[in-house]
Automatic annotation (TrEMBL), chain A:
Belongs to the MAK10 family. Keywords: Cytoplasm. It comes from Eucalyptus globulus. It holds the Pfam family Mak10. This is N-alpha-acetyltransferase 35, NatC auxiliary subunit.
UniProtKB/TrEMBL annotation, chain B:
It holds the Pfam family LSM. It comes from the Eukaryota. This is Sm domain-containing protein. Residues 33-92 form the Sm domain.
Length: 733, 116
């Protein structure tokens, strides 16, 4: 009896009776078979206590929590949605070629596909993966299939070529931001150069242009000479559809040209790129207007869904977002929302404007000018693609614009004469490292604000170390200068000037680090006082170093030659007619920062700040947390929480009555505006400084007069006039 | 067959969990011997997972280590299979449809038999 039962069990084990097919292609080992253990497992589970597990010695509950749960949509990317594979989808008619045997419907659907692809491309640019966006298009996944459909085929080819070009430039820039998803193209048909894609596109464009001329011919009275088949069947729609397709094809053509021009080394293609950008923008305008034609033919409603991804409002044929989920990592990608069609058009308009700004920037600018440009550029929040282009334009083959050696750039920035730019001192280890730091700085300034701030904080240490290394020979040779040869003395002079520039640059990085904190909203109002104080301290050093550097050059005084390089102090300012404009510009910032520090300190000391202190950490701890990187790098030296406390603990409104820093800021800003006639960015910045100064000055006057006497006065701070410098708002509650 | 057997054991009162010799812990003992062996689990949507048996709980949820997913490229079989490495996975008992362990022909009888 028992034996028969055992045989039955064995037969069951052979797998036919449990009723679940097992693929023969999953082999068991040599001399072994697959034995069904379900009954045994069930019996064992029944015997377990609640919460009891059967596991081995290597089991760790914490590690087990990281297991992917099968059939959970957030964790299981292999879950079968609609189709098991692309091929099954195709066999089930998900991406027919042609899309319809009715030419009119075929054309309408093709336009929808073009529009949806634009929306996918925009979504991809915003930071998602290709597999989930552009390559959710089944037509793109099997390129050969569309060869009988000229329009769709050429469009797919240009899309692939464009995506490839964009992936290439972003990979070259290697920003390694969170958008690493962007360049993932494993398993996607993106390989190989497609030289013929443009000629194919041109041929199709030519045909449709002729079809457009043909359909307009009767009204213009010309005889139709060409025996040309129309684009589609409905003569009333022919003109509208021809135009809609033409603007889309032309946009793609010009956009591809933009990317190719920008790729050319040493910025040689920038002017031509601007022409294509301009064409792109006009085609996008026409594309936007084509919605009228495309929508009016079907659904009469114009406000049907703001998130439609096509101009016509229809769902496009041939897309399946779930088909590629297995191409990502074991876990499925986050579910994403494809941009709406109008959002996508807006995105490309912005992208083209940002690229245009990059193209119009002069290739002869000084490093200071470049840094200023990059800071200004970031204010418009450019996306990854434009930032990557900026970086690859600036730095090619380890040179600026692929043309100027970094040492030449440094010597120019430090105010050294041009003949020195090939001096062999550049081969010394210190200066090679300094060159790397400069390249790294330019790369960092092309990343997004959050990443940028983090990196800027980290490199402070590196810049400090370089400074110390460059300073070493001077420290060692105190008092021995008379023993140096002329060449050695010359080298010393070069290094001395470079040293001043390095210091200036370090403080500039520190100031950027601090100010980006406002942009990223990292400071709470209770911390503004210490932040402005630190900004004030750093800006003073920056201005000092900048002025010192400028005193080396004779740029402001053409008549006198001040060839001798001076070391040390700026006591020679008596020879200067006035402070250089850029230093005065900084001075206005310094006055603002000082004014804000004092005002906030007075408010705190008079207990007028509405902010209650945080119970979690003290002022001192927060000081350390915010300025840790600066303190570690000693930028500047001898600055501590104690110095901050010393400067601010006795400030009262009664003391501030004596000195209104904001009035100084206002005055300087007014004076300096005239020194930047060709710089609209600086001028608007100075106007903003003036505004902040004026509003704060008034607020300060009110507070000084009434402040401690009127408990109903409430003070708050906002950034309505300037992104970093707050404006005080005094209200009666 | 299995349910009757288990019920019989329950009624015999030997499933109090106290004795090492109770048949309840004998099943648990046998399943413990299956640990680290290659296990093939089939699930409702037709996929199979092959991995090292790592853990099971009272509800019948299974954890496999170094798992590989097998799936066919068409809904209907026969069809070519694709495979993919997944690492550590948890298969809920609710979606499990089959479970097989790789074992030698000789041992499968003793392994599977629910007799003593």
């Amino acid at each position: 009896m028992d034996e028969r039962r055992a045989e039955a069990a064995a037969a069951a084990a052979m797998g036919r009776h449990d009723g679940h097919p097992r693929p023969a292609s999953i082999p068991s080992g040599d001399g072994s078979v697959w034995a069904d253990v379900s009954p045994l497992l069930e019996a064992a589970c029944a015997d377990l206590q609640e919460g009891e597990l059967i596991h081995g010695d290597n089991f760790n509950l914490f590690a087990a929590m990281s297991a992917l749960e099968i059939m959970d949509p957030k964790m299981d990317s292999g879950m079968v949605c609609r189709y098991y594979s692309v091929d099954e989808a195709i066999e089930n008619g998900a991406a027919p070629v042609p899309i319809s045997f009715d030419k009119t419907v075929d054309v309408q659907c093709t336009i929808d596909i073009m529009d949806h692809l634009l929306a996918c491309e925009g979504t991809w640019h915003k930071g998602h993966s290709l597999a989930q966006t552009v390559f959710s298009c089944i037509y793109l996944l099997r390129p050969e299939r569309t060869s009988s459909h000229a329009l769709l085929h050429s469009y797919c080819r240009i899309i692939r070529a464009t995506c490839k070009a964009v992936v290439s430039v972003v990979s070259d820039a290697r920003t390694h931001e969170e958008e690493d998803l962007f360049t993932m193209s494993y398993g996607l048909p993106l390989i190989g150069e497609d030289e013929k894609c443009l000629s194919m596109l041109n041929a199709v464009e030519e045909t449709i242009a002729r079809q457009l001329r043909a359909c307009k011919a009767p009204s213009s009275g010309r005889k139709v000479i060409e025996d040309l088949e129309p684009l589609q069947n409905n003569p009333a729609l022919e003109e509208g559809y021809c135009k809609a397709i033409l603007c889309r094809l032309r946009f793609r053509k010009h956009f591809y040209h933009v990317l190719m021009c920008l790729k050319r080394p040493q910025g040689r293609g920038l002017q031509l790129a601007r022409k294509h950008i301009s064409s792109c923008l006009s085609e996008l305008e026409i594309i936007r207007k084509s919605t009228e034609v495309l929508r009016s033919n079907d659904y009469g409603t114009h406000n049907s869904g703001e998130d439609k991804t096509t101009a016509s409002g229809r769902q496009p044929v041939g897309f399946d977002a779930s088909i590629n989920t297995r191409l990502s990592a074991p876990t499925p990608p986050r579910s994403i929302k494809i941009l709406s069609w109008s959002e996508a058009v807006d995105y490309f308009v912005k992208l083209l404007h940002d690229l245009d700004i990059i193209c119009s920037f002069s290739l002869d600018a000084s490093l200071e000018g470049i840094l200023q440009f990059m800071v200004q550029f970031q204010k418009s929040h450019p996306d990854l693609v434009s930032r990557a282009h900026l970086q690859t334009l600036l730095i090619q083959d380890g040179k600026l614009y692929g043309r100027d050696s970094i040492f030449a750039v440094i010597t120019k920035a430090a105010g050294l004469p041009e003949i020195l730019r090939n001096h062999d001192i550049q081969n010394g280890e210190c200066l090679v490292q300094l060159g790397q730091l400069v390249i790294n700085l330019l790369k960092i300034l092309s990343t997004n604000a959050a990443w940028q701030r983090r990196k800027l904080g980290k490199i402070l240490q590196d810049w400090r170390v370089i400074h110390i290394q460059l300073e070493l020979p001077f420290r060692q040779e105190m008092g021995e200068e008379s023993g140096l040869s002329a060449d050695q003395s010359g080298r010393q002079d070069i290094l001395r000037q470079i040293l001043v520039w390095v210091e200036e640059q370090t403080f500039w990085i520190a100031s950027r680090f601090l100010m980006l904190g406002f942009e990223l909203e990292l400071y709470s109002p209770g911390e503004y006082c210490m932040v402005y104080w630190y900004i004030y301290v750093v800006l003073i050093k920056l201005a000092e170093r900048m002025h010192h550097k400028m005193s080396f050059t004779n740029a402001t005084e053409p008549a006198k030659t001040r060839g001798k390089k001076k070391k040390g102090s700026t006591k020679d300012t008596s020879r200067d007619i006035q402070m250089p404009a850029s230093v005065l510009f900084l001075q206005s910032y310094i006055c603002l920062a000082e004014g804000l520090t004092m005002m906030l300190a007075a408010l705190r000391n008079e207990r007028m700040l509405s902010q209650s202190p945080s119970p979690f950490n003290s002022d001192h701890e927060r000081f350390i947390q915010h300025f840790e990187l600066l303190q570690k790098a000693g930028v500047p030296d001898h600055i501590s929480y104690q110095s901050f406390e010393e400067s601010t603990k006795n400030v009262r409104f009664s003391t501030l009555v004596m000195y209104n820093y904001f009035k100084d800021a206002q005055r300087i800003a007014k004076e300096v505006k005239n020194s930047f006639p060709n710089d609209p960015d600086r001028q608007s910045e100075l106007r903003r400084v003036e505004q902040v100064a004026e509003h704060n000055s008034i607020a300060l006057t009110v507070l000084c007069r009434l402040g401690s006497l009127d408990p109903s006065l409430k003070v708050s701070f906002d950034f309505s006039h300037h992104p970093y410098f707050a404006t005080a708002v005094v209200k009666r509650s | 067959m299995e349910e009757q057997r288990v019920e019989a054991l329950v009624s015999e009162g030997s499933l109090d969990g106290s004795g090492i010799n109770s048949s309840g812990s004998d099943y648990v003992f046998r399943v413990r011997n299956l640990l680290f062996r290659r296990m093939l689990v089939g699930i409702k949507d037709g996929r199979f997972f092959l991995g090292a048996f790592h853990c099971i709980d009272k509800q019948g949820n299974i954890i496999l280590q170094d798992a590989v997913e097998y799936r066919s490229t068409r809904r209907s079989s026969p069809s070519p299979m694709e495979q993919r490495c997944l690492g550590l996975i948890l298969i809920p008992s609710s979606c499990r449809t089959s479970c097989h362990v790789d074992c030698f022909i000789e041992e499968q009888l003793s392994l599977l038999s629910l007799n003593q």
